[in-house]
Design brief:
Elements: E1 18-21, H1 40-43, E2 47-48, E3 51-52, E4 57-60, H2 82-95, E5 100-107, E6 112-114, H3 127-130, E7 134-142, E8 145-147, H4 149-162, H5 171-185, E9 189-197, E10 214-222, E11 231-235, H6 243-246, H7 254-265, E12 270-272, E13 287-291, E14 296-299, H8 309-323, E15 329-332, H9 337-341, E16 345-350, E17 354-361, E18 364-365, H10 373-388, E19 394-396
Parallel strand pairs: 11-12, 11-17, 14-15
Antiparallel strand pairs: 1-4, 2-3, 5-6, 5-10, 7-8, 7-9, 8-19, 9-10, 13-14, 13-16, 16-17, 17-18
Helix pairs in contact: 8-10
Length: about 400
């Protein structure tokens, strides 16, 4: 229930400055924290000097000199029972259905798995929610196998260490929880996203009152088909994260979101970040690679950006193209913008998009403006690897 002290906008700054006249109070002054919007007095049950604001008379000083009648009604905010609250969650879940389906969730706070999307919630006092103190990772599910699960679990544990989060389980424990969650979901084609959090405790900045860290995982099925067509990218004007944060896969993705939105607002698929020295860095949630005029696969170094599991796997698979003489060499180093824009091919690489050719960067057309043969070959290689690759990159799930 709001009081006058909870309203933040100074009343003097409002175009319709109210005067409060209370029959039982002669004081005409209000705390400077009082503020209204047009319907503010209808949206809250307010109190003024300890008395219900509903007893007050409100008049607006404006050109029309309109005086409002005594407020007798306020917007009612119901207090829900447990069953009513759960029912509201279910209704909301039904109303927001889209291309993604959430098939199962594990929560270490609850100690188990739910397959009801409405119950896939986490505590508000979890420090990952209100302080961003959490890390995450993603793995693809292909034909009943989780792709590169060990590699992704190893990375989330590195991220957790950098975020000073002590995980509730070790590598093998997390792996088994994730496999069981996929099994419960019955999903054979989709993705697995999971988080390590400082855990619930309070709304302070320090996690010292968090009783234990938390592991969450969600299995996602997406009806969107894999896109193979080339895209346009732009150079991002959103500041890139410093290396110590860019190399940690944390939930602090506001710069990434703004970078993606910037691209969409300019008719592009993604924005490309440059590092503090002006070299090509990465996209908002993907790595970038090039095929030079010398037929070399060129990828920016990982020392200032996130070490992409898919990108590193592409580097390994690309060795087959070198043996087949489709590529001359594989190089990982700093890449200048001019060098990247003059490449024969450019591509984005990530677990969600796999390989996406880039046809245009800003106003510069890449190569001949068509999807290049190396990008297409690498996409086929990674798809084959996901379906038929060695057991160290394909973890089976028992359903």
């Amino acid at each position: 229930m709001a009081t006058l002290f909870s309203l933040c906008k100074p009343i003097s700054g409002h175009p319709f400055m109210p005067k409060i006249n209370n029959s039982s109070h002669d004081t005409p002054l209000l705390t400077q924290n009082l503020g209204f919007n047009r319907n503010g007095y209808r949206d809250f049950r307010l109190k003024f000097e300890g008395q219900p604001f509903l007893r007050s008379r409100v008049s607006r000083c404006c050109d029309q000199a309109e005086t409002l009648a005594e407020i007798t009604n306020a917007f009612e905010v119901p207090i829900l029972s447990n069953s009513e609250f759960i029912e509201k969650l279910k209704v909301n879940c039904e109303e927001r259905k889209g291309k993604q389906s959430f098939l199962a969730m594990y929560s270490s706070i609850c100690g188990g798995i739910t397959t009801d999307p409405a119950m896939m919630v986490i505590p508000m006092d979890d420090h990952m929610v209100h302080r961003g103190h959490g890390v995450f990772d993603t793995a693809a599910i292909m034909d009943g196998y989780v792709y590169e699960l060990d590699q992704h679990v190893a990375r989330i544990l590195r991220s957790a260490s950098m975020a000073k989060i002590n995980p509730p389980f070790d590598h093998e424990g997390i792996k088994q929880v994730l496999i069981h969650t996929v099994s419960a979901s019955k999903c054979r084609q989709g993705s697995l996203r999971y988080w390590l959090s400082a855990g619930p405790g309070d709304f302070q900045l320090s996690p010292s009152s968090c009783h234990r860290s938390a592991l969450y995982a969600v299995v996602i099925q997406d009806s969107t088909p894999l896109a193979r067509n080339g895209v346009k990218v732009i150079t991002s004007t959103v500041p890139i994260k410093p290396p110590e944060f860019a190399t940690t896969k944390s939930v602090n993705y506001l710069p990434n979101v703004l970078s993606k939105m910037e691209a969409e607002e300019n008719g592009a698929f993604a924005s490309i970040w440059l590092d503090n020295e002006g070299y090509i860095a990465e996209g908002p949630n993907m790595n970038v690679a090039f095929v030079t005029k010398e037929n070399e696969l060129l990828m920016p170094a990982f020392d200032k950006i996130l070490s992409g599991c898919t990108a590193k796997r592409v580097l390994t698979l690309a060795e087959g193209l070198v043996r087949a003489r489709a590529l001359n060499e594989i190089i990982v180093r700093n890449v200048a913008v001019k060098e990247g824009k003059s490449a024969k091919e450019m591509m984005l690489i990530g677990s969600g998009i796999l390989i996406r050719p880039v046809l245009q960067w800003d106003e510069q057309v890449i190569g001949d403006g068509k999807e290049g043969p190396v990008a297409q070959a690498l996409l086929e290689l990674i798809l084959q690897d996901m379906k038929y690759g060695p057991e160290d990159v394909r973890v089976p799930v028992t359903y």
